[in-house]
Every structure is written in C-alpha cells, then in structure tokens.
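Predict the 3D structure for this chain.
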Amino acid sequence: MSRTIEVDFLPQAFEEAKEKPRILIIDDNRDFTYSAKLGLERTGRYSVWEENEPARAHQTAQHIQPDLILLDIAMPGTDGGEVAARIESDPTLHRTPVVFLTALVTRAEARSGLQIQGHPFLAKPISIPELVAGIERNLPALSHDKHAASFGLQHVTNN
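Done. Predicted structure below.
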C-alpha cells in the first residue's frame, strides 16, 4: 500500500510575504540586521530578510527577488560595491533598487541627495523611522501598487 504525503516546504511567512514589499538587508553586523528586520516588520509594511555573509548576498537576492536591497558598504571580504555590481549585472535583479547603508558618511551628506556608485545611501546609525523613510523614497511604485492591490486598493494618479 502506498501513501502520498503532501508537504509544504515553503514557510507560511514566505507565502504571506508575496503580498508585501520584500526588503533584503545585507550587512555583516548580525545585531544590526536583526534589529532592523524586527523594527521594519513591526511596521506591518514589509517582509524582511537578512543576509550576513557578503559572499552569499547575490545568491540570496536571486532566491528572494527583493523589491529593494539595503546594503552595507564596508564589509569584510566582499564589500558592498562588489555586491551591488553583481546585482546590477544580473538580468533578474538589475532593476532592483539598492540603497547603501554606511557609517562612512554624515546624516547631512545622506540628506544631500548625493549618490555612491549611482545608488542612494543612508547614514548609520539609523532609526527605524529614518529607515522606513529611506525605503519609501526608493521603493518602486510597482511594489507599492502590488501591496495596495493585495488590500483591494488601486493606485490613483491626478492628471
């Protein structure tokens, strides 16, 4: 007698995440990624993943297909610039916005609108409200519309 057992290997959180913009945080500082993930998820607006190994960052991004990547610049081994270059050269990820996170700049420099390697950046340390504001400034409208659609809302433009 043979039996078929059906198993769902995708956690429920992954399925629920399809409805919210997906944010990937890449930083070698586990304490930072953990606290940022908790703070962002508590807003109820995002599904957040962490990657603490810069050498695996590109592979993780391919698997998750995030709507936005928060990327530390100064990491051992593979720095944020190298990770960003790999993401930009990947045909499935090249349109994914990358926002650098760095302690190498001041908050005033981050607010100035300057970019690093063509990407916006946020100064660390950073509060959750500042992080949310940075995400919202750089999250593609398509992600917002997809999230709103999951709640039965539509994007309205004024002409």
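Residues 147-159 have pLDDT under 50 and may be disordered.
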